[in-house]
Amino acid sequence: MSKIFAVANQKGGVGKTTTCVNLSASLAAGKYRVLLLDLDPQGNATMGSGVDKNTLQLSSYDVLALGLPAHKAIQSTVGGFDLMPANGDLSAAEVELLEMDGRESQLRRALRELRDNYDYILIDCPPSLNMLTVNALCAANGVLIPMQCEYYALEGLSALIDTIAQIQRAVNPELRIEGILRTMYDPRNSLTSDVSQQLTDHFGERLYRTCIPRNVRLAEAPSFGKPALEYDRHSKGAIAYLALAGEMTRRHGTNQSPGHAQAAAV
Questions:
Q1: DSSP string, 115-172
Q2: Distance of CA 160 to the CA centre of its chain
Q3: pLDDT category, 78, cuts 50, 70, 90?
Q4: Can you give the pTM of this predicted structure?
Q5: Which of 36, 106, 149, 160 has its CA 20 to 30 A from that of 16?
Q6: What does the pLDDT look like over 178-189, one tens digit per residue?
């Protein structure tokens, strides 16, 4: 049965989509079966995976709002993982979900048919704590929280943790914080070091050891519709996400496959 992780942070620009696309590609390079579910109406994960959001026939909107079987909206990508894409149509789902019975559980029901088909399902959440994010948290086993090491990010983190606790109590007792991921990391910055130490003190083992550095190649890759691993596999960003994939699979007691070991060694 797959492990389902919502990649969430209501603060924008912290690397959620970058993490979803590149972690999906890195897990796929390790021969894991991976589905990336784009749940953000901006469709950035869709475009970053090499799929044109403007020409979609079926998307996550059709699954959430219209009850389309989830497998019908899935397509393959250049990164070796499967994608359930999204575009601006998904904005309408926010309103339509409010009128449904069991509105917070629509995504969980939709994913039941897929849970034996994948090792990992990653959900790219919108940068707000809206009904789409609530659906992701209700469907997930864990929440991966990317964040920059700055003080405003710490304030936003507390609100997200409160929301996770509320959903855990109300509808999803399995939900937990999978991990905190430091993104756009610059160890030369004293503020970065201070906030990083606070995260270490507070979250302990839930803080990933892997840090994602500021990297030009990570920023360039989406404009080519590729994960960094396909765009420049030798870049620091690509190597960091391979390391994150290895750390994640070790946490869950999953042995690295030969394919992943070879990729990580590049």
A1: TTT-SEEEEE--SS-SHHHHHHHHH-SEEEEEE-SSHHHHHHHHHHHHHHHHHHHHT-
A2: 15
A3: very high
A4: 0.92
A5: 106
A6: 999 999 988 887
